[in-house]
Amino acid sequence: MKRRQFIAVLGGAAAVWPLMASAQQRERIRRIGVLMDTAADDPLSPVRIAVFMQGLHQAGWSDGRNVQIDYRFSAGDADLYRRHAAELIALAPEVILIAGGTAVGAVQQATRTVPIVFVYVSDPVTRGLIASLARPGGNATGFLTFEYAISGKWLDLLKQMIPRLSSVAVLRDATQFSGVGQMASIQSAAAPLGVELTPINVRDAEEIKLGLTAFARAPNVGLIVASSSKAEFHRRLIIDLAARLRLPSVYPNRSYVAEGALLSYGPDILDQFRRAAGYVDRILKGEKPADLPVQAPTKYELVVNLKTAKAIGLDVPASVLARADAVIE
Predict the structure, then answer these.
(1) Would residue 183 count as lying in a domain?
(2) What is the pLDDT of residues 61-101, one digit of tens each?
(3) What is the arithmetic mean of pLDDT over 291-314?
(4) Residue 223 and residue 112 in one domain
(5) Quick one: which of 213, 141, 12, 173 has its CA closest to 77?
(6) Residue 294: phi, psi to the nearest 5?
(7) 23 pLDDT exceeds 60?
(8) What is the pLDDT of residue 298?
């Protein structure tokens, strides 16, 4: 290339580069808040966040490039929900992803204008979080964890596993709206099956230990672990106790079974985080949560851990194995 041509090309490039740099600098950074109901050091937290981030990335969003994401972790603690809700609102996010109904309530006490996308929330209409599933009508929308009727199916599964089942402990959070609803559904299913229920609170580790140890002394017994943030927080303790006490147990999602629990039936939680990224994307692009219908789970999973069944001396019926979506051996 001749010297004069080279200078001309160089001059043209020099004129373009500032324009390119300026365009990059002008790319708007959007702010997203994330309020998790798990602890920051819980192994479930990075997995669920990674799935959410993957969904955002597929929609064209990248943390540090065109979005900034602020995280808070509350581990099922009501006081932390309120504190972290205030902290996130103070950061002026354009949308907040929230895990759990109690956390949604805490954020809505702080704001009725910042858009909210929630995951695994039960009965948001009765709780006053939205107006209706089809038309939420306020600042929140998202994904249901399940219908309460599924709780009765946990009892049915236990009965199939233990035909002589006579008594079942229900480990639940009585302070949560969902804890009451799940217990009512299990009670409705118990009478036709001739099963007596013993509710045990999941308030703290000591209460769980004392309650389960005393209950497991009787024959033909089983355990249902209802869905709650506190049960998930104490899941390692619950799983280990159930194994030591040789207590057949049913859990609300597969994360328990992956860590050694016997059996779970419930929605795919990771799928909810994946789908939530789509709603966050739509809100960042101008849609309103009031117009985005709340969605129910698209699939319920039955997961069985045969290794745990063998360890507690339980034969899993062929009828249960035939229905299982996943079997851990």
Answers:
(1) yes
(2) 999 999 999 999 998 888 999 999 999 999 999 999 999 88
(3) 94
(4) no
(5) 173
(6) -70, 130
(7) no
(8) 83
**313 shares a domain with 211:** yes
For the entire predicted model, the pTM comes to: 0.86
186 and 323: one domain?
yes
Estimate to the nearest angstrom the gap between the alpha carbon of 148 and the chain centroid.
16
Q: Whole-angstrom Cα distance, residue 95 to residue 80? A: 19
What tokens does 257 get? 């079974």
| Start-to-end CA span in the chain (Å) | 69
Q: Which residue has the tokens 């739509």?
A: 282
Q: Is residue 18 part of a domain?
A: no
Measured torsion, CA atoms of residues 162, 168, 172, 175, in degrees rounded to the nearest 10 = 160
Residues of the domain holding 37: 26-144+269-298
Report residue 88 as tokens. Answer: 């996130």
Number of folded domains that form the chain: 2
Distance from C-alpha of 98 to C-alpha of 120, rounded to nearest angstrom:
9
Residue 191 shares a structural domain with residue 163 = yes
